Amino acid sequence: MKSLILALTASTAMVLPALAQEPIKEFNIGVLGGENAQDRMTANTCLQKYTEEALGVPVKIFTPADYDGVIQGLLGGSLDAALLGASGYAKIYLTNADAVEPVLVKANLDGSTTYYSIGFAKTDSGIKSLADMKGKSFGFGDPNSTSGYLIPLVEIPAEGYSMKPGEYFSDIKFTGGHEQTIIAVKNGDVDAGVTWADGQGDWADGYNSGALRKAADSGIIDMNQIVEIWKSKPIPEGPFVVRKALPADVKEKFTALLAGLGEKDKDCLYNVASGETAGFKPVTHDAYATVIDVRKAELAGQ
């Protein structure tokens, strides 16, 4: 019996090191499309620096040209974390439920964790609502964008306006991202477009946070030049996710860094969160159940 116990002890000692997760050698953060790559890189340089300090390994920021670049990076394991839209998270979950886990969500100044899909047109276009868009072109950011496509794809037809090109709108165009949609409307490449905003604060500022706020801050658009023509129902903010296979201590340190980013560096939080926010707070998979169902239906219909 004694020899058996010793044998089992020895075999267990050999197995445990093999099961232990090896320390990471680097950490890669993906940033969704929506504005040009250099601006995305600049906005997240502070997060790169703080993550290196927290984890003690080199950190790289990746800015793929489209949303799917980040999605595939997370699915393939080449990216370790990213701030996703709810639709992007839904696609990852439906592809591989064990790829990532949501840890935090951006909170608005009033504590809410929702935002809106905003339809807009040039002020001098004469377009004031979807009723004025018959026979006109509509710009959307990316097929994997929640506010930039998925929600309008569901809600606009429910209001009686077909999203099939040529049936009501003359054309449906994908611009490549939120910033590109704003520029396309400004330049007259499309008659109207859709982007995202928290819907709080003043229109003249681009609201408190979102693509309109970033565009207004950077001088891309004067908010007096555009008018809101449509607004969705509240949409759940997308999650900051981490790769599930990461060591537990890495996930904990990175999550703690994000949760305390506002106290550490308010300007960094402003850049990472695309405007004024109350910071990041905990979130779980359950918050995205409805969006996952919508995305599942959308994928099934393709």
Automatic annotation (TrEMBL):
Q: Where is the signal peptide, in residue numbers? A: 1-20
Instruction: List keywords of the entry alphabetically.
Output: Plasmid, Signal
Q: Name one GO cellular component term.
A: ATP-binding cassette (ABC) transporter complex
Q: Which GO terms describe its biological process?
A: organic phosphonate transport; transmembrane transport
Keyword Repeat part of the UniProt annotation: no
Concerning its family, UniProt says: Belongs to the phosphate/phosphite/phosphonate binding protein family.
PANTHER family named in the record: PHOSPHONATES-BINDING PERIPLASMIC PROTEIN
Question: What name does UniProt use for this protein?
Answer: Phosphite transport system-binding protein
The upper taxonomy is: Bacteria, Pseudomonadati, Pseudomonadota, Alphaproteobacteria, Rhodobacterales
